[in-house]
Amino acid sequence: MDVGFIGLGLMGRPMALNLIAAGHAVHVWSRRRESMQPLLAAGAGDCASAAEVARRAAVTISMVADAPDVEQVTLGADGVAAGAAAGHIHVDMSTIAPAAAQAIAARLAECGVTLVDAPVSGGEPGAVAATLTIMAGGDAAAFERVLPLFRAMGKSVTRIGGSGAGQVAKACNQILTGVGVAAVAEAFNFARKSGVDAARVREALLGGFAYSRILENHGQRMLERNFKPGFKAWMHHKDMRIVMGEAHRLGLALPSAAATAQMFNAMVGSGLGEDDSVAMLKVLENMSGGPDA
């Protein structure tokens, strides 16, 4: 399949490389030309704009930071809509607000472009290994058409429902993972301040009802104090802002999510935004006298 890829950062670059490895012809554009070099070296087509990407491919994919970026690369002067032929499918794999995805989908539809919102979970390791969890919303026929692309990038692919439904699922994912990271960090900090080996606590908890992938994987990284980003804290901070914005819009009480959003606020405010989200442990330690207090 001829496919265009827009946005070649921490996640987008390995995702696009996996499409090439699966045999798809990939055409790329990024605002930072240096981000394109690994793709060009792997045989990707070199494009000067998102519009040119859309002219070369019947399906385009974007993986950018937030809704304004999605709007710019799809509906801007040199965006996808400017170069797409009628019947074009655009897949946005960024994490944005469900309402924003629905609004962008409506505007693209006026230009003859169908939007599939398909945010992902799995971080950089999942992007590299092509084991991402992909949550999609939008037209069922368009989803089926791009399913081979999803299968080249992920191991779990689910169409949730109509436009914006993928983003709703991703918001739910970020609530669960964010609250989970906060809970593990609190538990480990509590254990250490109580004079108990947090590694032994984790070992015991993995055998009971407290088991979770977050305790297993993120917990191990906390024990190792490995805060190298697989998913940067500022990105989870942005995602929790989306969650709370939707909660306000819908009039929902999300108390655990709200408390976790505040912890991510503290992370970014204290200069930990570029660290992995598991560095929340450092915030809690600092609030209680430091890791060795």
How would you describe this structure to a colleague?
Strands 3-2-1-4-5-6 form a 6-stranded parallel sheet, with helices on both faces. A 3-stranded mixed sheet has the order 7-8-9. The chain is 55% helix and 14% strand. Helix 9 (165-193) packs across helix 14 (280-287). The protein folds into 2 domains: 2-162, Rossmann fold; 168-287, N-(1-d-carboxylethyl)-l-norvaline Dehydrogenase, domain 2. The model has no long low-confidence stretch (mean pLDDT 95). By secondary structure, it is of the alpha/beta class. The protein has helices at 12-21, 33-41, 50-56, 67-75, 80-83, 98-109, 123-129, 140-153, 165-193, 198-205, 213-224, 233-250, 255-269, 280-287, and strands at 2-6, 25-29, 45-46, 59-62, 88-92, 113-117, 120-121, 132-137, 154-161. It comes from Thauera linaloolentis (strain DSM 12138 / JCM 21573 / CCUG 41526 / CIP 105981 / IAM 15112 / NBRC 102519 / 47Lol).
State the CATH architecture of the largest domain: 3-Layer(aba) Sandwich
What's the count of strands?
9
- The run of helices and strands is EHEHEHEHHEHEEHEHEHHHHHH
End-to-end gap: 57 Å
CATH class of the largest domain: Alpha Beta
Flag low-confidence runs.
none
Main beta-sheet annotation: 6 strands, parallel
- The helix/strand class is alpha/beta
Number of domains: 2
Count of runs of 4 or more consecutive helical residues: 14
Range of strand content:
5-15%
Shape: elongated
Strand order of the largest sheet: 3-2-1-4-5-6
CATH superfamily of the largest domain: NAD(P)-binding Rossmann-like Domain
Oligomeric assembly:
single chain
What Rg do the Cα atoms give? Answer: 20 Å
CATH topology heading of the largest domain: Rossmann fold
Organism: Thauera linaloolentis (strain DSM 12138 / JCM 21573 / CCUG 41526 / CIP 105981 / IAM 15112 / NBRC 102519 / 47Lol)
Domain 6-phosphogluconate dehydrogenase NADP-binding: 2-161
GO molecular function, one term: NAD binding
Protein name: 2-hydroxy-3-oxopropionate reductase
